[in-house]
Amino acid sequence: MSLRAIKYENNTLEILDQLLLPAQSKYILVKGVEDGWKVINKMQVRGAPAIAIVGCLSLAVEIKGEKFESKKQLRQEIEGKLNYLVSSRPTAVNMKIAAEDLITLANQLAEDANVNLEDMKIKFLTTIEDMLEKDIADNRAIGENGAKEILTRVSGDSLVRILTHCNTGSLATAGYGTALGVIRSLHEMKRLEHVYCTETRPYNQGARLTAYELVHDKIPATLILDSMVAALMKHRNITAVVVGADRVAANGDTANKIGTYQIAVAAKHHGVPFYVAAPLTSIDMKVISGDHIVIEKRPDREMTHVGEHRIAAKGIACWNPAFDVTPASLIAGIITEHGVFRPEQLKEEFTDAST
Ligand code: MRU
Predict the structure, then answer these.
(1) In a shared domain, residues 60 and 169
(2) What is the mean pLDDT of the chain?
(3) Distance 64 CA to ligand 1 centre (A)
(4) Cα 13 to averaged position of ligand 1 atoms, centre (Å)
């Protein structure tokens, strides 16, 4: 069993093929940007932070092996390839923000007369390589901030019961995870009684990937079907829901895996606090509300088939959006590496830094 989604050693990039999990742990070599685009688009690697890290590292391995005539040529190559990588999956914002930051860096280095071509390349590659460690550190901080926040909801040293959706763990990040990081942190603090994870149809990230991580870490957990959420809230006294995010808009509306919105609606009805756990790189202050977030549509086959076996009646039309938007009004807090914010606080906290 391996929980390392991304291996990057000696300028070699490999990703754990998440389409084969949990049956097989097999790594795929990513030789450059073309491979990076394909593994992200096919969802062999997925989860907003992991998409950005793999995309950028695929550019790093490609650039490292190439010879450039000039800083201008290197800058042009960086910009073109990053923009291409952003097109691999449209909803998760982390790749787009990483691309914007790296293009700004490339422009600065290209214009700086004190930086030669070799220095520019090294500085650029080091910045990408640092993303792996930063993501793990951010996730640890998210885990701790989220655990402390949720524990304010219970008295004394009571234990908590958490519901999560999709996969937001080591497999969706450089390690530890965001919403699953909060769950890991509660478990490490010995304050987690139980976690429930949804199957997450149609792609089953919950049943295949989150369940795999929870079993691996021996965290007390139960798998439920997506259709059982309201019943679970009625019968199992859930302390809080914690999910991840693919993009948080400036007003706090949050795009995440399809099914998240209905969980938030059910949580409101049952008085269960609903939290989003996400790094600052998932917050898009340039998008004013969830209405402006582009939602990726996935192939019908993900709904009509399980593996090679067709389960839906032939001829039926399908609608398969990969994500939905939970309105800010249903979100109790956004758990980040810098603390927990109410949706309406995002504008005052982050407008200057991100726009
Ligand atoms: O389609 P996926 O599997 O990439 O969707 C993943 C999610 O929706 C996650 O909740 C989100 O990317 C956050 S992962 C830390």
Answers:
(1) no
(2) 96
(3) 29
(4) 21
